[in-house]
Amino acid sequence: MAEASKSHMAKEASVAKPNIFARLMLFLRQIVAELKKVQRPSREDLWQIFLTVLAFIALIMVIVGVLDAASAKLTFWVFG
């Protein structure tokens, strides 16, 4: 068992890593390959997503505004 482990470690040590430029080119090729797989939304889908985000932001603004006004009223009520 120890013999197999030593031979496995020796094989890993003898296999040289590619240089930095080869690894960089491999990385960039993989990025391009993944980007080709991306499915981009249609114009209608993009518009729907935009309106949904806009509505969500408006809702959060209203909630924060109400909480801010309530905390201001409470502060003036407590401290005069």
User: Low-confidence segments, ≥5 residues, pLDDT <50?
Assistant: none
Q: Report how far the terminal alpha carbons are from each other.
A: 80 Å
**Overall form:** elongated
**Category by helix and strand content:** mainly alpha
Q: Report strand %.
A: under 5%
The main β sheet shows up as: none
Return the string of H and E elements: HHH
What's the mean pLDDT score? 89
Quaternary status: single chain
Specify Rg, calculated over alpha carbons. 29 Å
Furnish the topology, listing elements before pairings:
Elements: H1 2-14, H2 20-37, H3 43-79
Question: Briefly, what is this?
Answer:
It contains three helices and no strands. The protein is mainly α.
Write up this protein.
This protein is 85% helix and 0% strand. It is built from three helices and no strands. The protein has helices spanning 2-14, 20-37, 43-79. The model has no long low-confidence stretch (mean pLDDT 89).
List descriptors.
80 residues, mainly alpha, 85% helix, elongated
